[in-house]
Predict the 3D structure of the following.
Amino acid sequence: MMRLTLPDVSDDDHRTLNLLLDRLEAKAQRNRIRSAYYDMRRAVRLVGSVIPPQYWGLGIVLGWSGKAVDVLARRCNLDGFVWPDGDLDDLGWREVWEGNHLGSEVSQGAISSLIHSTAFVVNTVGGTSEPPALLHFRDALNATGEWNGRTRRLDSLLSVTGRGDDESVTSLALYLDGRTIVAEKDQSGWSVDVQTHPWGVPAEPLPYRPRLDRPFGSSRISREVMNLQDQATRALIRLEAHSDIYAIPDLWLLGADESIFKNADGSLKASWQVVMGRIKGVPDDEDASTPRADVKQFPASSPEPHLAALNAYAKMFARATSLPDTAVAITDMANPTSAEAYDAAQHELIAEAEGATDDWAPYLRRAAVRALAMANGVPAGEIPDQWATIQPRWRDPRFLSRAAQADAGMKQLAAIPWLAETEVGLELLGLDRQQIDRAQADRRRVQAQQRLTALAAAAQAAGQDPVVAGGDAG
C-alpha cells in the first residue's frame, strides 16, 4: 500500500490521507478495467484452440460498453439552474456558469460517474483572472472520499492532481472540514500549504444508482455488461476466421499430381492463387491408375450461426443496459412507426436518465449554492434561506420534435393563459435558453422604443398647448 508522510501535517490528517490513498489504490485496477472497456482498449482472452491464434491478435473490439454509457449520458443534459425566489444573475451566476463551462463540465462528470459509479465536484475560490468561484470535476481514478451516512455529506475528499511516470503521486489536495491541505512534490521533497475557509468540506459526490450499502453507487459497465461484450467480441473473432477459412468451398482432387499447383518455373503457387482460380485445367494421365482426375466438393459453411450468436448477445446486452434492441442488435429490428411506439421502445432508457439526474441533482445543487456563496463571500453558516429554492434544470430525456413540443405547450398555455407572459411559458413552447434570452431582450427593446415614442408624443402634445390656448384668447 502507498504511504505518504507530509511535513507539518498532524497524525490525524496523515491517517485520513493514507486511508484515502489506500482506498484509491484498492479500486484503481477495477476502475482502469472499466475505462479500458469504455475506450475500446480491452482485448478478450484466447478461449479454445479451434480458431488459429493469429485471429485473436487482430485487435477486434466492440464499443458496446461505451455506447451504453454515452447513450444514457446524452439524455442527461443540464440546461442550467433556476431560482423561483430571485434572479441568479444578480448573484453573479452567469460569470460562474460561463467561466467554468458548466454545461460541458457537468456532462463530462456524468460520463465519468456512469463509468466508475461516481465522480466528484470540488469548489474552490477563484484567483486573479479567474471566475469568482471554480468548480472542478474529478473521476474515481483520481479522487475518493469518506461518506458520512448521518449527515449525508463527505467528511473528507482526496484529489490526486499529479502523478509521475511510475504513477506515484506528485501533487494532491486533501479537503477537510474548513481546511484544505495542498501538497506538491519536487526534487527537494514535499511542500505543503494549508488553507482555511468557512465552507466545510467543499466537495460533493455524483453517484450513479447509489444504495444504502453503496453510497457511491454502481458502475453502468457492470460485470454482466463486460462479460456479454467479451462473448460478443469472441463471436466476431470466430466470424472473421470463418470468413477466411470456412467460407470457401472445400475441394478434394483425386487422381492428380501437384504439378497443377505450380508456376511455370516450378515454384508452388500462392494459396490465394489456388483458391481464387476459377478455371483450372487438369491433364489426363493415361499411365496412372486413375487416368482422369476426380473432383469432390463440399459446400462452404454458412456464417449464420455466428451472426445469430452475435445478435443474441446484442439483445442480452440491450436488456442489461436498458437500451432498445435497435441500439446494438443487427437483425430482426423494425423502426418505430409512431411517437408512442418510439417512447415505448425507449421507456427503460428514459427512466434510467430520469433516475440518474434525480440522483445527481441534490449534490449539484449544493455545489452551485456553495459556488455562489464563495463568489459573494458568504460563509456556509450564513447562506440565506431563500437560496434553498435554487435547483438544477434538466432537459427532458425524451427526444420530442419541435412541432410536438410546441403543440403540447400551446394546449397548456390555453388552459393557463397567464403562463404565456413567463419564462415557463416560453419553455413549454420548446424554446431553449438562448432563444428565451433573445426573445426577452427583443421584447425589452420594443417596450423601450414604445415608451420613448409615447414620451415623445406626450412632449409634443404638451408643447402645442400654449399655442392653442393663445389662439383662443385672440
